[in-house]
Write a structure and sequence with these properties.
11 helices; lipopolysaccharide transport protein A fold; 2 domains
Length: 362
């Protein structure tokens, strides 16, 4: 790494970490602490419990601040270099704007990749831990609850051995309605069971009024049997089944893909899950997009002031998340494709960044 790259990187990292701390403090102060205070006053949550809640909330907040912090860092670092005429000196030495922007773009891309990894490996588990504490430790709501679109996966040797779907679960009657069971061997579908309902009685699930279909190796129907009553091959009780149902923000991308595939087989709309899946990559990549915007803007006149840089960052961030919010709503409602809903803000930012870089290079 050349001395110039190290120098620019040093100028960049200080504001970047400051941005993470500053923007995280805003999210924590306006949302997280308010909810924690409600749990303390309403449910009498202990200090240990709310401390765990606070820690579980941090990964999701920090990842969300990466794009904002990269925008602020690129604005402030290049604004300071421009204000002290160091950019002029570098250009007089024969360096183009593109060359000066290289360390920023590489750093932003690495930050985006790191955010994707955190979004996949850390954030879903942290969100699941947060919701578990709220439901079982604070609200102490351990009884099963009525839900729609129940999916139960039995994994054996890293592969799905059985996939069970129920259109809904009624906690009042301990009943799953419109049940479908798919059994696999070595990744191949070998049996399908369908029933009108399954009722929890004593220590087992009993399916009523359904069919069992065995499939041959080429996927054709081998035989089909009707039944009035049949034991559902699941040992989990209603409480265990409802507690393991995850929200989209609690799932990894692999789990989201499995959920989408299972719901599509039952002709259930999956717009919300698909938008969430695509945003797992699109939102972290906003760090790179914001660097494209912030770097040329930092060279504009009168950008050396940190207050102007912070104000400009807030305006751009507001515009980005306003577009993201509208696009997400349209994607979840099915008005536009899920992939478009996730990537439209980045595409707009990318085009704006390319235009600004072109102007700055001239």
């Amino acid at each position: 790494m050349r001395i110039l790259d190290k120098y620019i990187l040093k100028e960049l990292l200080g504001p970047f970490f400051f941005g993470i701390a500053a923007f995280s403090s805003v999210f924590i102060g306006t949302n997280t602490l308010f909810r924690i205070a409600q749990y303390v006053t309403k449910y009498g949550a202990s200090i240990l419990t709310v401390t765990k809640l606070f820690l579980y909330s941090l990964p999701g907040i920090i990842v969300l601040t990466f794009p904002m912090s990269m925008l602020l860092a690129s604005l402030l670092s290049f604004g300071r270099l421009s204000g002290s005429s160091e950019i002029t000196a570098m250009k007089s030495g024969g360096l183009s704007f593109y060359r000066l922007a290289v360390p920023v773009m590489i750093t932003a891309f690495v930050v985006s990749l790191g955010a994707i990894v955190l979004n996949e490996e850390v954030v879903p588990a942290a969100n699941a831990g947060y919701n578990y504490i709220v439901r079982y430790e604070i609200e102490k709501n351990t009884s099963p609850k009525s839900q729609e679109h129940i999916i139960i996966k039995d994994i054996k040797d890293g592969q799905i051995a059985r996939l069970t779907y129920a259109q809904s679960y009624s906690a009042d009657t301990n009943t799953m309605n419109k049940v479908s069971v798919e059994e696999f061997e070595a990744g191949r579908l070998v049996r399908v069971e369908n029933a009108e309902k399954a009722v929890w009685t004593a220590d087992r699930w009993i399916m009523y009024n359904g069919t069992i279909t065995d499939l041959s190796t080429d996927g054709r129907v081998g035989r089909s049997l009707k039944f009035t009553e049949q034991v559902l091959p699941i040992e989990k009780n209603p409480a265990a089944i409802t507690s393991e149902q995850k929200k989209p923000e609690e799932m990894s991308m692999k789990e989201l893909k499995q959920q989408i595939a299972a719901l599509k087989k039952e002709y259930v709309k999956t717009n919300s899950y698909e938008v969430e899946l695509h945003q797992r990559i699109a939102i972290p990549m906003a760090s790179f997009v914001f660097a494209l915007i912030g770097t040329p803007l930092g060279l504009s006149p009168h950008r050396s002031s940190s207050s102007i840089g912070l104000g400009l960052s807030i305006i751009i961030i507001f515009m980005y998340y306003a577009v993201l919010t509208v696009a997400t709503a349209l994607g979840q409602g099915g008005a536009i494709p899920a992939i478009a809903a996730a990537w439209i803000p980045n595409i707009i930012g990318l085009l704006a960044g390319i235009y600004l870089i072109y102007k700055a290079s001239r």
